[in-house]
Design goal:
This protein has 282 residues and is α/β, with parallel strands linked by helices. The chain has helices at residues 3-17, 86-105, 121-126, 133-141, 161-173, 190-196, 214-229, 243-252; strands at 26-29, 32-37, 40-51, 57-68, 114-118, 149-154, 177-183, 200-203, 234-237, 256-257.
Length: 282
């Protein structure tokens, strides 16, 4: 379905589900989709994720971009503070992920690449069951499948483990991959991680260290990477900002890399390498 028709469809769907509200609506400008919510205009930027071994781009994480409105000194994610109740927050979370999926559609060089999307923790508490079902129908309209999507969830270690485990299992049953974000910021509980059974773990930025402390950071990451990978989980080192951090992450043996040194968030995705075609027989 053309992007213009998808924008019209999702605006109509939003008005029907929100009782006629029109203040949160998608719009198409210069080939990109934007959405209005709470007096703000929001867009999408994509940050590449790179395979450590090859250095090739394998997917992108979508981030929210504040185009108009809001407080200049606050991150775009602060828009979630404007939600009046849990129902509106769930609506906003899905609205943002729909925005990112629509903008991902226009990226023609992403065959085989994944799209990583953040899930607000409050959605996991508010939605009791059938996690990912509503968003799966949204993806289907966009011509995407859950297998192309990585759902990123932050775990502070204090959330009810049974409830969080059920929520993540619900996503996984529908084919989504699960990433635990910022692992090591609040908790590095490996038993809890094993219970959550994610596909991917993203190490918190505090673990990569800074100049002058990289030897300790590398030792910590190497030990943690070994323990996590024994659970059958891929490990990502994020917030790579200089060559020394990149070297430390690679020497620690992590699977994937992400950070400003490798690619800043931008309106367009970086192209994925095209698979080599077998040479024709002479």
């Amino acid at each position: 379905m053309p992007l213009t028709e998808l924008v019209h469809y999702f605006n109509k769907r939003s008005r029907l589900t929100r009782g006629g509200a029109a203040e949160d609506s998608f719009e198409l400008a210069e080939g990109r989709v934007r959405v209005r919510f709470g007096g703000c205009l929001l867009g999408t930027v994509f940050q590449p994720v790179v395979a450590s071994a090859s250095g090739q781009v394998i997917g992108h994480e979508a981030h929210l971009q504040l185009l108009e409105g809001g407080e200049a000194d606050l991150p775009p994610s602060a828009i979630f503070l404007a939600a009046r109740d849990d129902e509106e927050l769930v609506h906003l979370d899905r609205l943002v992920r729909t925005l990112h999926a629509l903008n991902f559609l226009r990226e023609r060089e992403q065959h085989g690449g994944f799209l990583s999307l953040n899930v607000h923790p409050q959605l996991l508490r508010t939605v009791r069951e059938h996690h990912g079902q509503v968003f799966e129908s949204i993806l289907a309209r966009c011509g995407l499948t859950p297998e192309r999507i990585v759902m990123e969830v932050s775990d502070d270690g204090f959330e009810s483990l049974p409830r969080l485990t059920r929520a993540l299992a619900g996503y996984r049953e529908r084919g989504y991959r699960i990433a635990i974000d910022n692992f090591g910021r609040h908790s590095a509980d490996l038993e809890r991680l094993e219970s959550l059974a994610p596909d991917i773990v993203k190490l918190d930025r505090s673990l990569i260290g800074h100049a002058g402390h990289l030897s300790l950071a590398k030792r910590v990451m190497t030990e943690l990477n070994g323990e996590i990978r024994r659970l059958g989980v891929l490990v990502v080192c994020q917030c790579i900002e200089n060559p020394l951090q990149l070297q430390a992450a690679r020497e620690a043996g992590v699977d994937w890399l992400q950070g400003y040194l490798l690619g800043r968030p931008a309106p367009a995705c970086l192209p994925l390498p095209r698979p080599r075609r077998p040479r024709e027989a002479a």
